[in-house]
Structure formats: C-alpha cells, structure tokens
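FAQ

Q: What does a record look like?
A: Structure on top, sequence underneath. For example:
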C-alpha cells in the first residue's frame, strides 16, 4: 500500500498544474473515492491542516500520508507530490527566458490557467459538499463569501472570525 500511495502522489504531482488547490480534487478522487485510504472527514481535516500550517497547501499530503501509512507515508507522500515540480523547475530554469518570449508557450499557459480555474471550482464544490452539512456552517460560509467578496474585507480576519464563530456555535 505504501508503494501505491507513493505512486499515486507522484502521478498527481506530475499531472496537476496550479498549486495546492488544484490538487484537492485529484487527491480526493484518489485517496477517498478510489482507494478509500481516507474517510471524507479525514480528507477535509487534512485540507484544513494544510490551510493553517505555514508553507504551501500541498503539505496537506504529509498529513494524509501520515494518516494512511505513518511516518513513511508522510515522507513518501511529500516526496511524491513535490518531486515532479521540483525536477521540472530545475530542468526548465535554463530555458525560462526563451520560453517566456514564445507566443505558443504563452498561449499554452493561458489555456492551462483556464483549466486550473475549473479545477479550483471543482475542489471548492467537493469541499463544500463535505463540510457544509448544517445551517451554521452554511451561514458562516455565506457570510465569509460576502465579507471577502463585495465588502472587500481582509481575508485573514474573516477566516479567523469564521473559525471562532464556528467553534463557539458548534461546541
């Protein structure tokens, strides 16, 4: 199972473009739906831990790997997720200036950015389905969206207030 977990994270890390949020849907499909290594609640908790820890959101895979297979799962999951992008960045760094000026490369990146937007929307819907399961959580989510969006409040304070409100109301 440890080897399968490593190969799963390596494949997701190799084929997903757009950062941690773009990985959420692929990880959920692989770890929760396909292999049932994590429950939906464990997965959502892993994403939440990735949100509150310093560094990239992709560190959530370390928590998920630990939950699935202990320390080796955490190490191999982290390696599997980060290794492809590290090697790609290392290889492409010598060609960065040439690629930056290339119209086909710029066009491809615009298309990839659109696809990443779709992945982010899918991840948002997947997480909402799993976590908006009572009127209090729905009200907090709607208030947060309204405060961050139209009201243009600082997201950090809105998130802290939402967390404190949720902890207080759901105790």
């Amino acid at each position: 199972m440890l080897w399968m977990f490593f190969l799963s994270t390596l494949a997701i890390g190799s084929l997903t473009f757009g950062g941690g949020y773009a990985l959420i849907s692929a990880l959920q499909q692989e770890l929760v739906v396909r292999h049932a290594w994590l429950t939906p609640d464990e997965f959502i908790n892993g994403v939440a831990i990735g949100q509150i820890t310093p560094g990239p959101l992709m560190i959530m895979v370390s928590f998920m790997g630990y939950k699935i297979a202990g320390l080796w799962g955490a190490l191999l999951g982290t390696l599997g997720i980060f290794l492809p992008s590290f090697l790609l960045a290392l290889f492409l760094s010598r060609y960065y200036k040439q690629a930056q000026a290339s119209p086909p490369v710029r066009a491809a990146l615009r298309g990839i950015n659109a696809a990443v937007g779709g992945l982010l929307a899918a991840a948002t819907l997947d997480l909402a389905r799993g976590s908006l399961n009572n009127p209090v959580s729905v009200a907090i989510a709607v208030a947060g969206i309204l405060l961050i969006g139209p009201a243009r409040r600082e997201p950090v304070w809105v998130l802290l207030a939402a967390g404190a409100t949720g902890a207080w109301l759901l105790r």
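Q: Is there anything notable about this one?
A: The helical segments are 2-15, 20-34, 40-52, 60-92, 96-100, 103-131, 135-148, 155-169.
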